[in-house]
Amino acid sequence: MLDLLFNEIAIVVIVAGILSLFFFLIRQPLIIAYIATGLIVGPSLFNLTHSPDVFVAFSQIGIAFLLFVVGLNLNWRSIKDVGIAASLAGFGQVFFTTSIGFGIALLLGFSVVPALFLSIAFAFSSTIVIVKLLADKNDLDRFYGKISVGVLIIQDLIAMLILLIVGALYGGGGDSIYIVIAIAVLKVVIVIVCLWFVARYILPHLFKYAAQSQELLFLTAVIWCFAVASGLQFLGFGIEIGALLAGISLAGSEFHREIESKIRPLRDFFLIIFFVVLGTHLSFNAVEAAWVPALIFSAFILIGNPFIVIVLMRLFGYHIRVGFLVGVTMAQISEFSFILLSVALTAGIIDSSVMTLATLVGLGTIAISTYLIKYNEQIYQKLEWAVKFMEKKPDKEKIERIKAPEILLLGYEYLSMAFLPAIKAMNKDYLVVDFNPVVIEKLKSSRIPHMYGDAGNEDFLCDIRAEKTELVISTIPDMTISTDLIAYLKSKRSRASIVVTAKTVENAKILYDFGATFVILPNILGGKLFAEILIKKKTKKSAWNAAAKSQQKILIK
Fold first, then answer.
1. Helix or strand or coil: residue 404?
2. Using CB atoms within 10 A as the burial measure, which of 70, 103, 135, 441 is most buried?
């Protein structure tokens, strides 16, 4: 029996490994490879596994570790950094996606409860896919990347609350709805109070002691995850909620990053089994029955979901470009989607056909959104005409009153705060441009000359007469914006010194070749150091050219 089980696990791991290598080669998310593995080894094709209970148990462990790691990153102290507007946009996106998705499900013939679960599940986007792709592009620290992560945090919080409610209600037995709700609320209050007490007064001392040994720290974290998950399951909650709350209780710990790095390999292995089990639920007959609603829901998530985000971001004052880039990242369904539907399936609330539909939607949206995120800048340039009607019209009266500044500063939050005092000390007219409405309010309250606008938009640059300035400084580490800015100034035969920012040495070389006068590399040249150079060089192009030649010699080495 043990030999047979070992062989089945070996088959699953080998098939998943081979498919993963292939999908990695064609630049597709590995989640698709895992689901395809389930289809191959499952009853639909070769029927190579005969121990479904074991693999389901493995998949539950994968879910527990995934939610434990998610909880570790939901530090309540950092939620304030998301920003009010981004938070409201996150709540609004979940609400409108759920509402519209619910209507679509009803029109497709689903009954109320399955339609509700489907629409809620499809409102969440994949943290794993989005963060991985943004990290690959080095876009996590860009403005739209930060907003995207903020929206994901809000989605995770909402998903946590929904799982908590479903888990509590599922444990209510046959009592009336009022008794079930009362007991559920009481359970939630007791659990949160107890976990808060333990996390505040016991866990810091326990993990400080365990941290003396890396092995002991890892084991203690696993023990805590399983203890809370099994304890809450005893109280009627699912293991999902227990694992998530176990992670959240450690989110403020000074050891949470070390714990996460040690849990991640376990999470990844067992999570592979979870997606393989999802794939085993696929059958050609079920796919044939579900492909039409799967196409409709996929189209809604790929097109409708980004549009909802774009509109909401625009309503909260964000530039249309930011809204588009954030919206495109949300065009797929989440791991939470499958977890929520798995809980509902286990509880008998939905049947397996709903899970099949969700799996098909997940396969399609995750695959396509990979390319949407990878080529988001190019897609925006192609589709800018279609969303331009939502763009905020420039204040013509304000623009007419503003003469061309001697120094134009594009982007405030990156490096500009560090060297703005140096610009003020030069006693020259200057203007700060940014498209973050929160930053604009800060500039307004500080009485700093400012303008809301897109530094990469040619019409806006023309309106503020950027070509007439003596010195243009862009602290936005965005190659597209930098090259568009340089191209515009060159087309106008501007004599301005053009200072732009690059993330890497390779990008700096490209910008120099493109025509930049000087390139700031934040990891080499900090804001304060640049301020010192700025005071010395001022706006003279010849002085900046000399500094650029010295820098390029260093970069070549």
1. coil
2. 70
Instruction: Decide if 391 is inside a domain.
Output: no
Neighbouring C-beta atoms of residue 205, cutoff 10 Å: 9
The span from the CA of 330 to the CA of 340, in Å, is: 18
Could you tell me if 531 and 474 lie in one domain?
yes
Quickly count helices (H) and strands (E) in the chain: 26, 6
Band (151; pLDDT cuts 50, 70, 90): confident
Domain stop point among 386, 419, 438: 386
Q: How many domains does the chain have?
A: 2
- pLDDT tens, residue by residue, 446-493: 888 888 888 877 878 888 888 889 889 888 888 888 898 999 998 888
What CA dihedral angle connects 260, 261, 262 and 265, to 10 degrees?
Answer: 100
Give the Cα separation of 126 and 337 in Å (integer).
9
In whole angstroms, give the CA distance from residue 320 to residue 441. 18
CB–CB of 82/154 below 8 Å? yes
pLDDT at 550 over 80: no
- CB 517 within 8 Å of CB 539: no
Q: Is the dihedral of CA 135, 137, 141, 147 positive or negative?
A: negative
Q: Which amino acid is at 21?
A: L
Strand, coil or helix: what is 451?
strand
| Sheet with strand 518-520: strands edge to edge | 450-452, 430-434, 407-410, 471-474, 497-501, 518-520
Domain range for 380 is: 2-386
Structure tokens at 293: 């609603």
Residues of the chain with pLDDT > 70: what percent? Answer: 87
- Could you give the angle at the alpha carbon of 33 between the alpha carbons of 28 and 39, nearest 5°? 140
419: domain CATH number? 3.40.50.720
316 phi/psi in degrees, rounded to 5: -90, 10
pTM, to two decimals: 0.77
Both tokens of residue 320? 């249309």
The H or E element spanning position 257 is helix 256-280
> What value does the CA radius of gyration of the chain take, rounded to a whole number of Å?
27
Tell me the H-state helices in 281-401: 284-299, 305-315, 320-329, 335-346, 352-374, 376-387, 396-401
The predicted model gives 547-551 an average pLDDT of 71
Q: What angle do CA 209, 211, 215 make, to 5 degrees?
A: 120
Q: Are residues 382 and 400 in the same domain?
A: no
Our CA angle for 422, 423, 424, nearest 5°, is 90
Residue 40 is encoded by which pair of tokens?
């191959």
